[in-house]
């Protein structure tokens, strides 16, 4: 039955992406809270994230 195969693929796809986004947000929050030398995190958060992309 192709409908069952498509539904199973969609379920696995959604579970995988939600797990990836949850892990990404958890690691991002951990890196933001542990990166304490920059004190302007509330005013300019993008400057604090610049070390991740370099």
Describe the overall structure.
- This protein is mostly helical and 54 residues long.
- It has a domain at 1-31.
- It contains 3 helices and no strands.
- It has helices at 2-34, 45-48, 50-53.
- The longest helix is centred in the middle third of the chain and has 33 residues, at 2-34.
- It starts with a helix and ends with a helix.
- 0% of the residues are buried.
- The mean pLDDT is 74.
- InterPro entries: ATP8_metazoa (IPR001421).
- One of its GO terms (molecular function) is proton transmembrane transporter activity.
- Belongs to the ATPase protein 8 family.
- Keywords: CF(0), Hydrogen ion transport, Ion transport, Membrane, Mitochondrion, Transmembrane, Transmembrane helix, Transport.
- It is a single-pass membrane protein.
Which features would summarize this protein structure in a list?
54 residues, mainly alpha, 0% strand, ATP synthase complex subunit 8, ATP8_metazoa, transmembrane, transport
Concise account of the structure shown:
It is found in: Mitochondrion membrane. Belongs to the ATPase protein 8 family. By secondary structure, the protein is an all-alpha fold.
Walk me through the topology.
Blueprint: H1 2-34, H2 45-48, H3 50-53
Low-confidence stretches: none
Q: What's the number of extended β-strand segments?
A: 0
Let me know the average pLDDT. 74
Q: What class would the helix/strand composition place it in?
A: mainly alpha
Protein name: ATP synthase complex subunit 8
Pfam families: ATP-synt_8
GO molecular function: proton transmembrane transporter activity
Family: Belongs to the ATPase protein 8 family.
